[in-house]
Amino acid sequence: MMSPKGSLLRGSIADAQFRLFACETTAIVQHIRDIHDLYPLPSILMGRLITAVALMSGELKAPHSEISIRIDADGPLKGGIVIANKEGMLKGYAFVPQLWLPENQDNFQVGKGLGKGTFTVIRQSGLKAPYQGRIELLDGEIGTDLAQYYHQSEQLPTAVNLGVLIDQGARIRAAGGILIQALPQADTDLSLQIEENMKNTPNVSDLMDMGLTIEDILNRFVLKNLSWQISKSTPIRFHCDCSKARFARGLLLLGKDELQGLREDISPVCHYCNKAYTFTKEEIENLIKSLD
Ligand SMILES: [Zn+2]
Which fold has domain 244-291? Predict the structure, then answer.
């Protein structure tokens, strides 16, 4: 099966006073919804998170470097994890994939479902130790939290618009996002104008559902009458890099005693893509032998 694709645009505004990332993630969010059988609220959470991490991945430079967002919250939705790498591969999972709340409208309010919690960003580049930054969730709607994260942890004024539109049949009608950051030399009036434009722009996914592309949205709303350019457009896609060899390495970490206690075939499942890897009794015995 071809992995579901989207695209990530990188650009600059007003002679590089601002940097711009924008992406279209509809097919990727639909795929994540399908493989994890996500209910509406976890679908919206994961759609916003995967879009957020895709936007953040636009800044990755070193090959194979990756960036993750992890939400841990005390509400019924609990949170989730998403990971993107420099090569545009995205994956993630929700902590409570089949959550349905008694009040119908609560099934569409991510912040309410999450409650209080933390928003953690982990950056991993090559062999260097991972870098981690964490903030308290601001409103749990993800876009605001992401902007707050950049502001608080990296001192980068950031404006974000994330959208996931889902219909009654749990079909993802549209998903995408825009992220703009003011660089140190940015003009203050221009910053205010862009911030105002972002505020007055309807939700990205609603506009996409009306047939507008991300570039149309930038042209007509966010960056109307401003000089800007896209420098690069690259594909992004859902991809899980799990393998039987990786699971075998994980099993080895259990140690000899634990492995010897396994009396029958086992089928560990990958959290990220739901693929199961079966290890027969003989294969487990071979793993035990390899430990000797
Ligand atoms: Zn996997």
Answer: CBS domain Like (3.90.1280)
